[in-house]
Each structure stands twice: as C-alpha cells, then as structure tokens.
Amino acid sequence: MKVHFKGTRGSIPTAPTFRDVREKVVATLLAARGKDLRSETQIREFVEKQLPFQHGHTYGGNTPCLNIETGSDEFLIFDGGSGIRPLGKEILESGNSGKTFHIFFSHLHYDHIQGIPFFAPAYIPGNKVIFHGGHETIEQALKDQMKTPFFPIPFDTFAADISFETHKPGDILEICDVKISLFEQNHPGVSFGYRVDQGDKSFVYSTDAEHTSPAHGKEYPYIDFIKGTDLLIFDAPYTHSQSIGNREHWGHSSNIMGVELAARGEVETLAIFHHDPAFSDKEMDEFLAHTKKFLDRSKLAVRVTRPGIPGAPSPRAHPTEVIVAFDGLTFEI
Ligand SMILES: [Zn+2]
Ligand SMILES: [Zn+2]
Predict the structure, then answer these.
(1) Is residue 29 part of a domain?
(2) pTM over 0.70
C-alpha cells in the first residue's frame, strides 16, 4: 500500500507568506556559501539532502486528506479537507473518468469536509462517489455546507452518482482490496479512527482524538486497535504541557502521548498529523526533533530501570521511527 498525504494541517488551511519564502531563500543561500554547487545535480542534491527540511521544503497547509493506493481501480480516500482539492485536480489531469471514489470521514468538523465542494471528480457524470463514515449526519453536513449563504452552488450540482453509507465499530468492510474497521474516538461530537489491513500490511488513520488519563491504564482498547500496525497516523498538534493545560478537552493529543501509545501498540512508524496551524516549518522541525529525543530517552529509560529482571518487559523497540507527515509525502508500507 502507498499512503499519499494530501493534507496534514489541522483546523484551518494555512499558506506561507512572501516573508516565509524569502527567509527560506536567504537561509539556503547562506548555507550554500563556500560549497561547490555548479551543476543542477549538485544543487538538487544539496537542497534535497543537506538543507534542513524547513529551508528546502514546507510541511504544507492543506487540511486533512489521504489517498491510499491499494492496487484497486477504485479510489480510497480518508477525509475531505482542503487537501482533496489538489487530489481531485491530479486525478482529472491523469485522465481518469468513470471512476469510483470511496471517501471516509473521521468526523464532520469543517476542516475535514471543507474540500468536498472543490473535489472536481464529483462534478463529472459517469463517476461514482460513495461517502462513508460512522456519523448518521454525513449527508446533511455535506449538503448544509453548500447552502446559501455559505456557498454559491448547491450540493445537487454534483453530476457524479453520489451515495452515503454509515458504518459502526465492529463492522469489517471489504473495499478496494483492503479490510477497513472503525474505532470510536474521544473528540467533541465523536470521531472515528480507521484501521486498514491488506495481507500482513496495515496502518491506522487516527485523527482528532484526545487520549486522557485512562490511556495510561493497562486496559485501553485503543492499544488493541492499533496493535502491530506498520504506520500509525496520529493526531498530535500539542506538546504535553498544552495537552494537559489550557487545551485540555479540545479533542486532540500530544506527541508524547503518540510515542507512549505507539510503543505499547508495537507500531513500526509513528506519523505526527493534524498540525497546529500556528506552527511554522521551523517549529515543525523542532517538534519532530523534540519527539525523537523523547522517543530515544524513553527507550533508554526502560533499558536502565529494568536491566534483565526476569518477567520484566523487554526494552522498548517501538516505534522504530517517528516522522512528521507533510503535504505531498508518500509513505509506502
Ligand atoms: Zn480536525
Ligand atoms: Zn475535529
């Protein structure tokens, strides 16, 4: 499977300003001083491999949307944030029509549905769009956001064949050559996490979920849901102190909670997701470095406090990697 991240920002789309771009160029030219950069190959190598991510790239600002390549002819998409707009454009450019799109919603907060009116394939006759989710009100929410005075054209303008399917935790759906299951999450109005299994490969898309103190308990059903997955896409816009401070009960979690749960769930790669719209690329780089440092320390702490005690848990091996998802990232499982 290939997970294409089309939108990774939470709450509201963000765009870089002219100043942000200018500072990247200045930092890049400063870093290039004295280097032998004559050919385009040398320059590309320098930008892609030697520059800090914050200077040569951007984490992006589109709100949540993932496109999953499963080998099926049908499209599997999670959430309809603003990232679904460039996805729709790419699909049309590659000449696809007469296609079927399965779009699963974690929940119906605006940052997860706002891209739907801009999803061009929905306007093409002969396409089929099936909206899936755990909420009974998907149809109403999608229609309401295209009503006057919020939008110039109504939902009925979509010329594709549109339908809606509601699912429950416990259901196992077989769509696009994968198995999909739902998990109800703690979030204002409830959200759903999705586990996707294909053979021995799997990932969990778990955005907009607040894990409070019961998460530290021995019996925490979420651990079973994420158990042994190759990739956990985890809602972590907050630092630990924010998550237990003034942002408690806002429905989101911290990077520290992500590491803790990924360790216990024996997840291979933890992907930080649903980034704070206020975070600059520099702050995102720092957030990743801080998360990696915490992961290394927590692995070391288990080794030091339980050195070879019979019956003690073995040193933590998971997660083996932590990344910060960004718009345009493709993660192969
Ligand atoms: Zn959100
Ligand atoms: Zn939300």
Answers:
(1) no
(2) yes
